[in-house]
Amino acid sequence: MTLTFDDILAAKSRLQGHIERTPCRPSRTLSEITGAEVWVKFENLQFTAAYKERGALNKLLQLTDAEKKRGVIAASAGNHSQGLAYHAARLGIPVTIVMPRGTPFVKVQQTRNHGAEVVIDGDGYDEASAFARKLCEDRDLVFVHPFNDLDVMAGQGTVALEMLEDAPDLEVLPVPIGGGGLIAGMATAAKHVKSDIRMVGLEPAMYPSFTAKMRGVNAGAPTGGATIAEGIAVKQVGDISYGVARPLLDEVLLIEEPYLERAVALYTNVEKTVAEGAGAASLAALLAYPERFRGKKCGLVITGGNIDTRLLASVLTRELVREQRIISLRIIGDDRPGLLANVSTIIGQLGANIIEVAHNRLALDVPAKGAEFDLMIETRDAQHTQEIMEALRERGYPPRAV
C-alpha cells in the first residue's frame, strides 16, 4: 500500500467547498526574528481549528452507505476527534470518540458539542487507541485512524498543495510529526510538485517515536512527559505513515519545550493568532535550529489552535518571565517605617508596575531588626529591568533576582 499524488488530487476535489481554503501569508516580523523568510499557513482557521478535518472528511466521504449507517469510531487527543465528529454530524453518521485521560478540557467539550459520544480511557493515545479498537469490535463500528490510513493521509496532503499554490517558491517545509499522517501526505504532495523542496520532520523531544524508528530502535525510544505539544505526543508512529514518509524526508529534528512555549507566545503576540503546542512546532524549529533555516523560504503550518485557555495564559506569563518582563526581586533592609514606600517610589518613578509584595520578618538569614521583601514587578523588557535594579542598588536597596 502506498500514497500517490493522484490520491491527494482526488482528495482536494472531494473536499472542495466542505472545508476552509485557509490563507498562507508571509510574516515580516517572524522573518526578522528567525532569519528565515517565513510564510504561515493558518490551519487554525478551519471550523474545528485544525487541519485534521481534511483527512477525517476525506475518509468519511468514501464510506459505503452500510458503513455510514453502522457509524464510526476513533481514538484521538482532540483535533482528529473534533474534525471527525463535526463532519460525521454533517453527514448524519453516528460517531464515538475515545480520548485519553489528561486531554485538555476544551477539546473534550468541543468534541461533545459536535454530537459525538466521548469515552475517556487510557493514560495516552496508545492506550486510548487500544480501547477504541476493542469498542469498535464490540459495537461493529468503522475505525477511522487519525494517521495510519491512506485516505486520511491523502486529505492531509492537500495542505501542501494549497501552500505551493500560494507560495510556489517555498524551499523548506518543517512539519510536526505525531503519528506521521500529516508529514506523509504533505511530503508526497510537495515532492511531486517540487522535487527539490526540503521536508523536515519535527518531534517533541519527549516523544521521539519517528526518530527511534529511523535509527532502528525496534522497541522505540523512551517516551513520556508533560509536553505542551500533546497533539503529537505519540509513543509509536504509524507503520503505514512511516513507510510513506520516510523516503521523502530530508531530516527529523527534536524540539525541546521552551521553544514550543516561545513559538506559541510569538504567534499570539506577533501574528495575533492562537496556536496550540503541536501547532507551533514548525516555528519552534526555526527558533531551536536557526542555522538550518536562515535565509530559506520556509512554509510553516499552524496545524491547530485548540489550546486550553489556562495553559495559554501560563505560557504567555512564562514568556514574560523568560524575557525578564516579569521578575521577582528580593530586598533586605532595616525594618523601619517608609522602607517599602521608598522602594515602591523608585520602581514607580522608573515606570514599572508592582504586581505582588511578600514581607518576611522571620527569616533567620535576615537580621532581627531587618526585613525581607520579595517584590514581583512588571517591566518593559530586560534592559528596563536592569535599569530598575541598578537604581535600587544606587539608593541603598541592593536587589537580588529570585
UniProtKB/TrEMBL annotation:
Occurrences of domain ACT (ranges): 328-402
Principal EC category: lyase
Organism: Phenylobacterium deserti
NCBIfam families attached to this UniProt entry: ilvA_1Cterm, PRK07334.1
CDD domains on file: ACT_ThrD-II-like, Thr-dehyd
Gene3D superfamilies noted in UniProt: 3.30.70.260, 3.40.50.1100
GO biological process, one term: isoleucine biosynthetic process
Name listed for the protein in its UniProt record: Threonine ammonia-lyase
Sorted UniProt keywords: Lyase, Pyridoxal phosphate
Domain of life of the native organism: Bacteria
Pfam families tied to this protein: ACT, PALP
Required cofactor(s): pyridoxal 5'-phosphate
Entry EC number(s): 4.3.1.19
